[in-house]
Amino acid sequence: MNTSENAILEARDVTIRYGGKAAVKGVNLSIYEKKITAIIGPSGCGKSTLLRSLNRMNDFIDHVTQEGEILYRNTNLYGEGVDPVEVRLHMGMVFQRPNPFPKSIFRNVAWGPTINGLPGDINLRVERALKQAALWNEVKDRLEDSALNLSGGQQQRLCIARALAMEPEVILMDEPCSALDPVSTARIEDLLFELKQNYTIVIVTHNMQQASRVSDYTAFMDSGILIEYGDTDQVFTRPKQKRTEDYVTGRFG
Amino acid sequence: MSDSLPIKAGSLGHRSGSLKRRHLAAQLFKAMCIAFTLFAVSVLGFLIFQVGSDGLPWLDWQFLSNFPSRFPDKAGVKSALYGTLWVVSLTTLIALPIGVLAAIYLEDYAPASRLTRVIEINIANLAGVPSIVYGILGLAIFVRFLGLERSVLAGAMTMSLLILPVIIISSKEAISAVPSSIRLAAYAVGATQWQVVRSHVLPAALPGILTGIILALSRAIGETAPLIMIGALTYVAFIPAGPMDEFTALPIQIFNWASRPQAEFHELAAAGIIVLLVVLLTMNALAVLIRYKGTQK
After folding, report:
1. How high is the ipTM of this complex?
2. Chain B contact present for A53, CB below 8 A
3. Is B46 exposed, middle or buried (0-12, 13-18, 19+ CB in 10 A)?
4. Domain spans of chain A?
5. What is the per-residue pLDDT across A115-158, written as a single tens digit (0 to 9) for each?
6. CATH topology for B64-296?
7. Nearest-CA distance A112 → chain B (Å)
8. Superfamily of domain A7-248
9. Which of A53, A127, B256, B280 is most deeply packed, by most CB within 10 A?
10. CA–CA dist A95, B180 (Å, integer)
């Protein structure tokens, strides 16, 4: 699996510091196209920080410095002249807590494509995104209702639809189910399998069952270091590192 | 909690000595809060009653449509009312864009540096500077240096200085209350900073910003000292036709009447206060209305 031929994203020697403190230390990681990659690890291990570096969301946090390269189809996302706004057109993001805009369901999905002037009929685009996010049937008759009236699980699927409407190549998910109940979680996991056909997905999760269920590859991080990375089956059943084994068997974390 | 159910401390066998004392302290505190609230409300009620009983008999169309006069029967607030409306309108035009834009800059654009913090602290300090100081500043800069004379414009610019800190602080608070998760969500779909501010931050902060502006304007409406300082007139028998005209304002007119010896003029002052209060309440009602409309969407 270490052939980097179909790697869509590659982290090379990435170190990320908050002020002086390193949250991510020298991470090398390849993300493969149209696969689901899970990043697991205990709280504060740097997995969310690493995820946010992939669409330059760390730019909004003061005093963050980053070393190393993030290559997206062989272009360094942190290279000179790279527009972070353009980066985010290729990398959609779903956050830990559902964060719909306090606007109508339609506007939530339509806003991104509209401001970016994406081609095609906006109504069709919204419908397609909502269908892909398995939300269409629940909201098709009330697209003008406020998104805030949806349940938490519906809101999160709306946020997924919002990301999908941009037709990104990669979708970054930062513990997307941590604020949801088991039923909503299951729906989103089903959704991930569907989305895998068209999108590359990177998901940060606390939930090891979730990682083993949905992902093709799993990266285990601890204290900012990438301890182990490989096929999900291998990482969970035949971990090479003692710390990985301890973590996935629930001995710590 | 409801106090309709009598609480019997100790009914579960708890050694109830201290529990009883704590319930008593809670009751005492509640009674104190009620007493102080009643006191404040009754003082206000007394003031309104006093002003109303003095001023209401004088309040008629003639009072609103006449210029001031040395005969109480003919005196009115027309020039003062127009002057106040002129000053408030111009002040809004000047202070609103500057204040809101400054708040947006400080909240969303300025780097989190020491300089930014110094600026923010000083804006907060400026909000506490006595209004007469702004009057002196306005006299020196607008009236003398810029040669605006005793115009409505000079008055409005002085008032703008006075209320800018209040507008900036309240707008900043409203803007920072917009959850950062909304901003991040917008950035994540490829928005530029301006798009995030225009489409998400400003609409969400608008009700709070408007409330701050109306409160600030309400303060400006009642201020007398800075206007006297820049030389607003006390006797004006015309209404300003443009921003460069001389003017007077309601608080000045009220002060002028109240300082005369005749009792009739004191009652006229009370009537002027009622007019001022009505203008103020209308503005507040407007703010409530806009807030309500804003939260409905």
Report:
1. 0.91
2. no
3. exposed
4. 7-248
5. 999 999 999 999 999 998 989 999 999 999 999 999 999 999 99
6. MetI-like fold (1.10.3720)
7. 5
8. P-loop containing nucleotide triphosphate hydrolases (3.40.50.300)
9. A53
10. 12
